[in-house]
Design brief:
Length: 407
């Protein structure tokens, strides 16, 4: 008899986003506000740098950490934009997307039985990465009233002797929530005292609206406990190039490199050349795309609120986390019925954790025209729900009246 593969892998649940998209892709004429990637193509001069690198025969492995020139550009970018300093030789690893970086952090830090604090709702890749190390995710519920921020009192309560790390992702997928410098200031003493690691997924850092991006890595007291994950997918519209990176202390970086060098060798070479161009000359493109996202966000939030779906103004990413509780449908039913009746695809909040119930994630990484059309359809869907409810209510009243009359 053939032996059973890893139980930890067998136990991993399929992504709630995928499940929904398989359903959507089987239908024709669907407007999708579900995707988690920019609708923009990679700026042409960046693509061209990748193409040129191939034409010039740069088709070999690079150093395990990635091209030194790229690491120098990454170091410069973080210094100039966020005031954080990382040594290109010892503290940076270029990875295959932020996705590899998440896995790398978990493999490097975790041992069986360790607890890892995860925020709920959260990005879907964290829990499986923790479970694969036979560690235990411990969830902190985030609330709409406090803009889905991590509060110091909740963090303090969640830390035990077994806690090894916390995974943060601000600006947040799926909520669009952002933490300010003042918010982080309150967490610093708790993190310092506990000695836990912070895996800080900052992939949406450049898509921070209304204020400046802040990071725990900006606090010297805890900088060595923080592993920053970032990448080119979101801000530079480079999802398909598969390029990200980690910034951390030397010690952690050298441990992560042990895994990366055997599992990956080096991130794709043409993508690394394209990324150098992105960091050197692509910032105006980032700002241009950001302006577009902001315009779309404003339209979407205002339309949703007008139709009665109370929605916080998200301060980052390209997602809105809309409260659908007035519809009295579960998140899953809301999204399934909206897809079936109006052919609009969005993602149930529960795909991101149990506390996502009552919410849906709507992506505005799509054209203004699509957003307008989708909003009309969502509004129509809510009206039909209202009419149904009125009819149900009238039927109930009629029943009670008949009973009264018959007494
Ligand atoms: N972190 C978050 C929060 C994300 O939303 C994503 C992409 N959806 C990733 C990491 C991974 O991105 P990539 O591997 O393309 O860099």
């Amino acid at each position: 008899m053939i032996k059973k593969p890893s139980q930890a892998v067998i136990d991993i649940k399929p992504s709630g986003i995928r499940k929904f998209f398989d359903l959507a892709s089987s239908m024709k004429g669907v407007i999708s506000l579900g995707v988690g990637e920019p609708d923009f193509d990679t700026p042409w001069h960046v693509t061209e740098a990748g193409v040129d690198s191939l034409a010039n025969g740069q088709t070999h492995y690079t150093a395990n950490r990635g091209l030194l020139r790229l690491r120098q550009e990454i170091s410069k970018f973080h210094d100039e934009h966020y005031g954080t300093k990382y040594d290109p030789d010892k503290e940076i690893i270029v990875t295959v997307g932020g996705s590899e970086a998440v896995d790398l952090c978990c493999r490097t830090l975790l041992e069986p039985g360790d607890e890892v604090i995860v925020l709920d709702p959260n990005y879907v890749a964290y829990e499986p990465a923790i479970l694969l190390q036979h560690a235990k995710p411990v969830f902190i519920e985030l609330k709409e009233e406090t803009e889905f921020k991590l509060l110091p009192e909740d963090l303090e309560k969640a830390i035990t002797d077994k806690t090894k790390a916390i995974i943060l992702n601000y600006p947040s997928n799926p909520t669009g929530g952002v933490m300010t410098r003042e918010d982080y200031e309150k967490l610093v003493p708790i993190i310092k005292k506990s000695g836990i690691y912070v895996i800080s997924d900052e992939i949406y850092a450049e898509l921070t609206f209304d204020g400046e991006f802040a990071s725990l890595a900006q606090f010297d007291e805890v900088k060595d406990q923080v592993i920053v994950i970032n990448g080119f997918s979101k801000a530079f519209a480079m999802t398909g190039w598969r390029l990200g990176y980690t910034l951390s202390s030397r010690e952690i970086s050298s441990l992560m490199l042990k895994i990366h060098q055997f599992v990956i060798m080096s991130a794709p070479t043409p993508a690394q050349h394209a990324a150098i161009e992105a960091l050197k000359n692509g910032y105006p493109d980032v700002l241009e795309m950001k302006k577009s996202y902001e315009q779309r966000r404003n339209l979407l939030v205002s339309r949703l609120n007008k139709m009665g779906l109370k929605t916080n103004m998200p301060h980052g990413t390209f997602y809105v986390f809309a409260n659908i509780k007035p519809s009295r449908l579960s998140s899953d039913d809301f999204c399934t019925q909206l897809l079936e009746q109006e052919k609009v695809a969005i993602v149930p909040g529960t795909a991101f954790g149990v506390h996502g119930e009552g919410f849906v994630r709507i992506s505005y990484a799509t054209s203004l025209d699509n957003i307008k059309k989708a909003c009309e359809k969502i509004e129509h869907f809510l009206e039909t729900l209202d009419n149904q409810r009125k009819e149900e209510l009238e039927a109930e009243v009629l029943e009670v009246m008949e009973e009264i009359i018959s007494i």
